[in-house]
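Subject: complex prediction, re-run

Hi both,

The earlier run crashed halfway through, so I resubmitted it with identical inputs.
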Amino acid sequence: MTEMNMVQALNSAMDHLLSKDKSVILLGEDIGKDGGVFRVTEGLQSKYGEDRVIDMPLVEVGIVGMAIGMALTGLKPIAEIQFQDFIYTAMDQIINQMAKLRYRSGGDYTVPMVLRTPYGGGVKGGLYHSQSGETYFAHTAGLTVVTPSNPYDAKGLLLSSMEYGDPVIFLEPKRLYRSSKGEVPDGEYKVPIGEAKNIKEGNSVSIITYGSMVPTVLNIVEKHKIDADVIDLRTLLPLDINAILSTVKKTGKVVIVHEAPRTLGMGAEISALIAEKAIDSLLGPILRVTGPDSPFPYRWEEYYLPNEKRIMKAVNSVMTYG
Amino acid sequence: MTEMNMVQALNSAMDHLLSKDKSVILLGEDIGKDGGVFRVTEGLQSKYGEDRVIDMPLVEVGIVGMAIGMALTGLKPIAEIQFQDFIYTAMDQIINQMAKLRYRSGGDYTVPMVLRTPYGGGVKGGLYHSQSGETYFAHTAGLTVVTPSNPYDAKGLLLSSMEYGDPVIFLEPKRLYRSSKGEVPDGEYKVPIGEAKNIKEGNSVSIITYGSMVPTVLNIVEKHKIDADVIDLRTLLPLDINAILSTVKKTGKVVIVHEAPRTLGMGAEISALIAEKAIDSLLGPILRVTGPDSPFPYRWEEYYLPNEKRIMKAVNSVMTYG
Amino acid sequence: MPEDSEERNKFIKAYTAMVLSRTLDRKIVTSQRQGRVGFYTPTMGQEALQVGASMAMETADLIYGYYRDVPLMLHRGVPIETIINQIMGNDSDRAKGRQMPSHFSSKEFNFMSVQSPVATNLPLATGAAYALKYQKKKNIVLATFGDGSSSTPDFHAALNLAGVFELPVVFLCENNGWAISLPVERQTKVEIWTKAEAYGIKGVKADGNNFVDTYEKVNEAVKRAREGKGATLVEATSFRMGPHSTSDDPTKYRTENVEEGSEKDPIVVSEKILKQRKYVDDKMIENIKSRTHKLVEEKFNECEKISPPNPSTAFEGVYKNTTWMLKEEVEDIL
Amino acid sequence: MPEDSEERNKFIKAYTAMVLSRTLDRKIVTSQRQGRVGFYTPTMGQEALQVGASMAMETADLIYGYYRDVPLMLHRGVPIETIINQIMGNDSDRAKGRQMPSHFSSKEFNFMSVQSPVATNLPLATGAAYALKYQKKKNIVLATFGDGSSSTPDFHAALNLAGVFELPVVFLCENNGWAISLPVERQTKVEIWTKAEAYGIKGVKADGNNFVDTYEKVNEAVKRAREGKGATLVEATSFRMGPHSTSDDPTKYRTENVEEGSEKDPIVVSEKILKQRKYVDDKMIENIKSRTHKLVEEKFNECEKISPPNPSTAFEGVYKNTTWMLKEEVEDIL
Ligand SMILES: Cc1ncc(C[n+]2csc(CCOP(=O)(O)OP(=O)(O)O)c2C)c(N)n1
Ligand SMILES: Cc1ncc(C[n+]2csc(CCOP(=O)(O)OP(=O)(O)O)c2C)c(N)n1
Ligand SMILES: [Mg+2]
Ligand SMILES: [Mg+2]
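This time it finished cleanly. Structure:
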């Protein structure tokens, strides 16, 4: 066990993978000498060589496409997109190739790979360095989407993703890269894909959240001594339906928190699943506290992100409902 | 008034727009001499010239990007993507340019344009000629997303879209191109953007649907004499919240039908809005009858698409609930 | 007739594959009109260039092809049944009819599953080539695409990356003059092979109607790739003798055409080449054609009898571990 | 000193813009270190090429620029306040601080709002050029981008379309040798201006450290565009004298650097040119520098005093007609 921040935990996971298996390859923009713009791959190129930690030209569709081709040919690529905001030129490769190859080839061709990318706001990045685009991936059958909220899960999920056998979109909440710290095992361990975690037990209200909003939610719950059941989803596709339904059945009151825009954000699907499968357990409306349906602003990002005021308003509203 | 199918209605709208205003320009693959692979632009190039009905090279990002540039420079472009399945290489232009230009320039630069594309299954198109990707657009603030279910709405919505002042994603249910017929005014008229239509009144259950599923739903409702309130959304972003809440308040029972995959399909947002704003009106779960979370198959598309059996099962289930 | 020679065998094999492909093409198009097949993208006109390219490849080399590559597959040894079953989407199709006709796949013969969005196989081919190079394998990658596909993002990405990393990949542009209704002159202002220079890779043009010329050009490119000398873009010019697909009506946009059996038909050109070298005579040609015809009829009829896949297969194989949603949805569907 | 001449005025204006930009650059970088500015992409090293290009443009011509184009904007006449207010994201910023610093916009001077995803302005520029041509206007479009941006899909799309439609657009590649940490030699195997050939447009290389050379090359390209002779790709080679951005630490990847005031510094090169032609002497240079310094200090302090925009502005202007969702959300937020 070592105390690490999320950047260090991810670096340690990749270091481990690279050292263990020669077929593991990293590729992305500025990930080599520069160590990545967030330093997540720091030191790995000098340790493992330029052909294993590849500084790529500025072409996201090429990064993703090449990684798919590598995965099809016996390598185990971990590709990085510098900011999730810049992933869209590779969207066709992701939706039409990566997600569909197993299906369309009757299982003859598969794409075991991980596509890492930092997402979310709170670092003064404006429209193009703050987006939370998880919906674009979580709506796409054939993909698996995970997002850690702490260093332990970050390393454990990355190690699991590399053994998953199918492509995993690995969303890293950049706001937590250095602020989130915790004990991380030095060796190998797994955080299972598809399993949410009940990170705080409570009986009066369920707060379902993930990624960058987890520490915010926990702080508020603690500060206000709310008797909340808090779920950290960890995997966004497929959602952990059992964890969601269990907490709803326990509390009957649900608040969903994420920073992606509300309309068709993850909250929509979570809410719909509950309205479909646990309507009788509900003791009030399902509320969503999310980013608004606008681009992400440079100034006033503290207003864009769900904050104490808004989360408490929703929590109080469902708790006093009826 | 003339009886037209949807292809003719769309053609007539574009013919009208081109004849009225020299700044209207059409661009897309095979839309000129060939008249479009679905013949929607048939005859327009020979009538208005190659510089106004432009046969574009095979590059979707160029089609969309060029159309944005035209819109920024005083033209009124209608761009066509041959199949919605092929739009993803243009996704960055759509999400990061088209949708954000007004916002990021403080209103100095705006993008009044229409991006047309046929979507949906039922024409034996398999994985890559059947997709219903409306979620990718409807989750994107800055876009407006419409989809007609009949020739009258097709023409009326297209005429409205061209005056909307912001970019409109115009999704054409290709399955209905020729099968849907109806009276269409010869001249100009508008179908307002943002307004759903209550296409059949009833009191026992609300069926909320749009685009290609509308005729299917109507047929089933008629055949089984269901006392259903049927809503044709027509605009997917922004949703007509009043129409949705009204029908829920009236019936208390909701079934949502669309052919896009369930997870984070439009049904998720509709369900979440209801669970947020009208939970007390609900007399049962909100059910979704949708395409499954898999790619769209060539064989057995009749199983992929919501059909009588599945829709009736859901309708009966909510109607007999409790 | 001269003695059997290695070249003679090779050429006859090449010619036979072309005839087989042409015969199959005609059969499928006819069957499509009869409603026995849903859709097809005829390959007529591109036989010589594909077979020429295939002649330069080893089975362990990887092909990232496109929807018109039937002649290439057949020459490579992919069983005709694999093609027909795919087109039928029947129970013997590896993908169980999930894909539209013309979207072939043969892992056995290292022919990558074909996608519809054009040219998006090219970055994959680049990645595969990187892997082969990294693994110090001697095999190489061949990636094919049409002339229209040269306008795409993926073309640019793949060729530049192949240049930067000096990868063992051959990009074969099958220039049939058209991208549906757009003639190549309206697709781009230059000859496609010249675009290689923009990526620092080799560019070469082949007469795609002449399988020998295409073989030689592709073979040289393959050699360079195997020797670690990097990528080549080969443009093989040919004709699209048929419509773009069975859904296409070329009379809308096209005035001239290369007729079957005319001077420019690559099968006719190939016959001339084989005859010139005295590898075949008219009788042998007749023989090959009638054998082939019989084979196609037989196989087609056999494959047509194979039952459809179980509907459940349409929703299987999305993941290694099916998601709970899909399980639930399929239960509702079936 | 020679008599006032048109050229002398032009050159002094050019030089002054360069000095102004350099001075502003230094001021912003310093302020960023002091926490008074959030972020910035220094433009140091690219002044001469940008000003040279700007000299060839008319105000009614459209610029589709990128985040490093401060010298170009200043030479064009964009008020220094526009730049500073954008960087501050204050209430006088047209976009009310919605965008990160360095994402400028000036409709008044036809400088299109800058996006972050690189090169995605190029297809827009192509569309704008199509519109101008269609409307039979005599104006043209200038689109700028970095060397790294030549690898993108949008570069390929835009240049090919400009070729096919023979559009009045000049693509100016500001080759500063780096894309963050990737040197241009690892970005692509060839010189960027040579890529023009792949699109059937004209390609030309300019010494971007010499504003006269860049002016002449761009001017010729502009002329061709105005005369309906189509597009040109100009590669202007220069240096990135600073880090990629204020967040970047170039010592991680870079060993050599062009120092301010050294022989290669484009400001020094420009001084030499002006002195050779006897357009300025040391005293005038001193004068320009101190005037500029004073101006920058004044304007910066003024702009810094402007209050922040109202938080509500962060959620306005997404649409012409705000959606009901956003209205509801903003009510909850504020
Ligand atoms: C990205 C993308 N856009 C559009 C299409 C629709 N489409 C199918 S084939 C085709 C033309 C392809 O032309 P070319 O690359 O020359 O190949 P050919 O069919 O002539 O062999 C088009 C536009 C597609 N498949 N993919
Ligand atoms: C599509 C995209 N990918 C990645 C980035 C992150 N990024 C910002 S600038 C940059 C390098 C750009 O290099 P170049 O085009 O040479 O311009 P320069 O910054 O050197 O002027 C990168 C990779 C981006 N902005 N856009
Ligand atoms: Mg072609
Ligand atoms: Mg650069």
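The domain at 2-184 of chain A is CATH 3.40.50.970 (Rossmann fold).

- K.
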